[in-house]
């Protein structure tokens, strides 16, 4: 049998915005605790997306990562990167704060990453360098340290690409001055932010 040409097994590339969340210190949880946490994280993210106007038709489904969730957003206005940063993340932060008050036994905190790039899908799932970059930012020691030393329940990290193309322009009321460079010389360039909510007639906004 002749070898299959390598190019024939490479699926087409798709541009997607990448939103992923990860629970701080999830390994300290018992298995029942993890079950409750997983349910809560999925529920909070679905509600945050819906509140930001992002429906199931705008993403590729929520992918469970064990102690977090990955969402790949299609390139449509309803799921724009500005909307993720300016609407969805602030709402997620508020919902998480509310959840921690109502269910103090589930006092988990989240790291959240927003990136974008070309990804591929095969029979095993989604893959691509853009996903690698996103998860390196999400799991960077500097990102974890920013959350560890904060009083908040959520830290946001964005790639340098997202900062250049969205954050620094102040789209959707985003305050670019509130973002700090990610100090990780061995990892990809990024920026971190501790969300502060400002409410107006249109809902929660990121400051």
Automatic annotation (TrEMBL):
Domain of life per record: Bacteria
Stored InterPro entries: Nucleotide_cyclase (IPR029787)
Protein name: Class 3 adenylate cyclase
């Amino acid at each position: 049998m002749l070898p299959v040409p390598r190019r024939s097994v490479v699926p087409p590339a798709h541009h997607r915005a990448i939103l992923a969340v990860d629970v701080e210190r999830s390994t300290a949880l018992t298995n029942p605790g993890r079950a409750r946490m997983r349910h809560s994280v999925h529920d909070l993210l679905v509600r945050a997306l819906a509140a930001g106007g992002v429906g199931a038709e705008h993403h590729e489904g929520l992918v469970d990562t064990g102690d977090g969730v990955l969402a790949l957003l299609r390139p449509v206005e309803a799921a724009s990167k500005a909307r993720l940063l300016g609407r969805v993340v602030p709402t997620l932060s508020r919902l998480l704060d509310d959840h921690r008050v109502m269910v103090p036994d589930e006092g988990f905190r989240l790291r959240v990453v927003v990136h974008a790039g070309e990804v591929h899908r095969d029979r095993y799932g989604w893959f691509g360098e853009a996903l690698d970059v996103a998860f390196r930012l999400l799991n960077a020691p500097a990102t974890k340290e920013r959350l560890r030393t904060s009083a908040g329940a959520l830290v946001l990290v964005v790639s340098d690409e997202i900062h250049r193309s969205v954050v620094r322009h102040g789209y959707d009321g985003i305050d670019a001055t509130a973002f700090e460079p990610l100090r990780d010389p061995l990892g990809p360039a990024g920026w971190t932010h501790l969300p502060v909510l400002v409410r107006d007639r249109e809902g929660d906004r990121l400051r």
